[in-house]
Design goal:
Radius of gyration: 15 Å
Order of helices and strands: HHEEHHHH
Distance between the termini: 18 Å
CATH topology: Sufe protein. Chain: A
Strand content: 5-15%
Number of helices: 6
CATH class: Alpha Beta
Shape: globular
Largest sheet: 2 strands, antiparallel
Helix content: 40-55%
Oligomer: single chain
Length: about 160
Protein backbone atom coordinates (compact mmCIF):
# COMPACT_ATOMS: atom_id res chain seq x y z
CA UNK A 1 0.00 0.00 0.00
CA UNK A 2 1.16 3.46 -0.69
CA UNK A 3 0.94 6.58 1.43
CA UNK A 4 -1.87 8.68 0.05
CA UNK A 5 -2.09 12.43 0.27
CA UNK A 6 -5.64 13.49 0.99
CA UNK A 7 -7.00 16.99 0.54
CA UNK A 8 -9.09 16.84 3.69
CA UNK A 9 -8.62 14.59 6.67
CA UNK A 10 -10.95 11.63 6.01
CA UNK A 11 -9.53 9.84 9.04
CA UNK A 12 -11.65 10.86 12.00
CA UNK A 13 -10.12 10.44 15.41
CA UNK A 14 -11.50 7.06 16.47
CA UNK A 15 -12.79 6.16 19.91
CA UNK A 16 -11.13 8.93 21.87
CA UNK A 17 -12.36 7.47 25.19
CA UNK A 18 -10.08 4.46 24.81
CA UNK A 19 -6.47 5.42 25.23
CA UNK A 20 -4.79 2.20 24.20
CA UNK A 21 -5.34 -0.36 21.50
CA UNK A 22 -5.80 -3.00 24.18
CA UNK A 23 -8.61 -0.94 25.75
CA UNK A 24 -10.29 -0.66 22.35
CA UNK A 25 -10.02 -4.42 21.85
CA UNK A 26 -11.39 -5.08 25.34
CA UNK A 27 -14.29 -2.70 24.71
CA UNK A 28 -15.17 -4.54 21.49
CA UNK A 29 -15.04 -7.89 23.30
CA UNK A 30 -17.21 -6.50 26.10
CA UNK A 31 -19.78 -5.05 23.66
CA UNK A 32 -19.96 -8.29 21.68
CA UNK A 33 -20.38 -10.38 24.82
CA UNK A 34 -23.63 -8.55 25.57
CA UNK A 35 -25.33 -10.39 22.70
CA UNK A 36 -26.66 -13.90 23.21
CA UNK A 37 -26.50 -15.08 19.62
CA UNK A 38 -24.69 -14.52 16.36
CA UNK A 39 -27.65 -12.81 14.67
CA UNK A 40 -27.70 -10.09 17.31
CA UNK A 41 -23.93 -9.69 17.03
CA UNK A 42 -24.11 -9.34 13.26
CA UNK A 43 -26.98 -6.86 13.50
CA UNK A 44 -24.78 -4.79 15.82
CA UNK A 45 -21.76 -5.01 13.49
CA UNK A 46 -23.92 -4.10 10.48
CA UNK A 47 -25.36 -1.11 12.36
CA UNK A 48 -21.84 0.08 13.23
CA UNK A 49 -20.91 -0.21 9.55
CA UNK A 50 -23.97 1.77 8.47
CA UNK A 51 -22.94 4.62 10.77
CA UNK A 52 -19.40 4.70 9.38
CA UNK A 53 -18.61 7.48 6.96
CA UNK A 54 -18.36 6.02 3.44
CA UNK A 55 -15.16 6.36 1.48
CA UNK A 56 -15.23 9.00 -1.23
CA UNK A 57 -15.47 7.42 -4.69
CA UNK A 58 -11.92 8.49 -5.60
CA UNK A 59 -10.61 5.91 -3.07
CA UNK A 60 -12.74 3.07 -4.40
CA UNK A 61 -10.04 2.06 -6.85
CA UNK A 62 -8.10 -1.13 -7.49
CA UNK A 63 -5.06 0.15 -5.57
CA UNK A 64 -7.11 0.04 -2.35
CA UNK A 65 -9.32 -2.95 -3.17
CA UNK A 66 -8.96 -6.04 -1.00
CA UNK A 67 -8.89 -9.25 -3.00
CA UNK A 68 -10.44 -12.51 -1.89
CA UNK A 69 -13.93 -11.36 -0.98
CA UNK A 70 -16.98 -11.71 -3.21
CA UNK A 71 -18.08 -8.19 -2.32
CA UNK A 72 -16.11 -5.07 -3.11
CA UNK A 73 -13.97 -4.01 -0.17
CA UNK A 74 -11.52 -1.12 -0.02
CA UNK A 75 -8.95 -0.28 2.65
CA UNK A 76 -7.17 3.08 2.63
CA UNK A 77 -4.18 3.41 4.98
CA UNK A 78 -2.51 6.63 6.08
CA UNK A 79 0.50 7.29 8.28
CA UNK A 80 0.42 10.68 9.97
CA UNK A 81 2.34 12.00 12.96
CA UNK A 82 3.70 8.54 13.71
CA UNK A 83 0.26 6.91 13.81
CA UNK A 84 -1.48 4.48 11.49
CA UNK A 85 -4.96 5.42 10.29
CA UNK A 86 -7.28 3.16 8.33
CA UNK A 87 -10.58 3.69 6.54
CA UNK A 88 -12.62 1.12 4.70
CA UNK A 89 -15.82 0.67 2.76
CA UNK A 90 -17.70 -2.19 1.15
CA UNK A 91 -20.84 -2.81 -0.83
CA UNK A 92 -21.75 -5.60 1.63
CA UNK A 93 -23.19 -4.51 5.00
CA UNK A 94 -21.55 -7.35 6.95
CA UNK A 95 -18.17 -6.86 5.30
CA UNK A 96 -18.42 -3.09 5.77
CA UNK A 97 -19.22 -3.49 9.46
CA UNK A 98 -16.43 -5.97 10.22
CA UNK A 99 -13.86 -3.93 8.26
CA UNK A 100 -14.99 -0.76 10.06
CA UNK A 101 -14.57 -2.54 13.39
CA UNK A 102 -10.98 -3.42 12.48
CA UNK A 103 -10.18 0.06 11.16
CA UNK A 104 -11.58 1.59 14.33
CA UNK A 105 -9.48 -0.74 16.47
CA UNK A 106 -6.17 -0.19 14.69
CA UNK A 107 -6.47 3.52 13.79
CA UNK A 108 -4.71 6.11 15.86
CA UNK A 109 -1.90 3.86 17.07
CA UNK A 110 1.78 3.43 16.38
CA UNK A 111 2.88 0.63 14.08
CA UNK A 112 4.26 -1.23 17.11
CA UNK A 113 0.88 -1.05 18.86
CA UNK A 114 -0.95 -2.21 15.73
CA UNK A 115 1.37 -5.19 15.44
CA UNK A 116 0.87 -6.07 19.12
CA UNK A 117 -2.84 -6.91 18.86
CA UNK A 118 -3.79 -10.11 17.07
CA UNK A 119 -7.22 -9.99 15.42
CA UNK A 120 -7.91 -13.51 16.75
CA UNK A 121 -10.19 -11.87 19.33
CA UNK A 122 -12.85 -11.64 16.58
CA UNK A 123 -13.23 -15.41 16.67
CA UNK A 124 -13.35 -15.31 20.46
CA UNK A 125 -16.44 -13.07 20.31
CA UNK A 126 -18.15 -15.18 17.65
CA UNK A 127 -17.65 -13.05 14.55
CA UNK A 128 -15.48 -15.15 12.25
CA UNK A 129 -17.17 -18.51 12.85
CA UNK A 130 -20.42 -17.32 11.29
CA UNK A 131 -18.92 -15.70 8.20
CA UNK A 132 -18.96 -17.47 4.85
CA UNK A 133 -15.61 -18.82 3.70
CA UNK A 134 -15.32 -15.97 1.17
CA UNK A 135 -15.96 -13.35 3.87
CA UNK A 136 -13.47 -15.05 6.23
CA UNK A 137 -10.93 -14.94 3.41
CA UNK A 138 -11.66 -11.24 2.84
CA UNK A 139 -11.37 -10.55 6.58
CA UNK A 140 -8.04 -12.34 6.68
CA UNK A 141 -6.84 -10.23 3.74
CA UNK A 142 -7.98 -7.01 5.47
CA UNK A 143 -6.07 -7.87 8.64
CA UNK A 144 -3.03 -8.86 6.57
CA UNK A 145 -3.09 -5.47 4.80
CA UNK A 146 -3.54 -3.58 8.08
CA UNK A 147 -0.70 -5.43 9.77
CA UNK A 148 1.45 -5.30 6.63
CA UNK A 149 1.04 -1.54 6.39
CA UNK A 150 2.02 -1.16 10.05
CA UNK A 151 5.05 -3.39 9.46
CA UNK A 152 6.06 -1.27 6.46
CA UNK A 153 5.77 1.95 8.47
CA UNK A 154 7.72 0.41 11.35
CA UNK A 155 10.54 -0.68 9.05
CA UNK A 156 10.67 2.73 7.32
CA UNK A 157 10.95 4.60 10.61
CA UNK A 158 13.66 2.31 12.01
Amino acid sequence: MQHCALEKDPFPKFDSMATSIEEKRDRIVEEMSLFDDSYERFAYVIEKGKKAEPLPDEYKIDAFRIEGCMSNLWLVPEFTDGLCQYRSDSDSPITRGVAHLLCNLYSGHTPEDVLSVDPIFLSEVGITQHLSSNRRNGLSNVTSKILGYAELQKSQSA
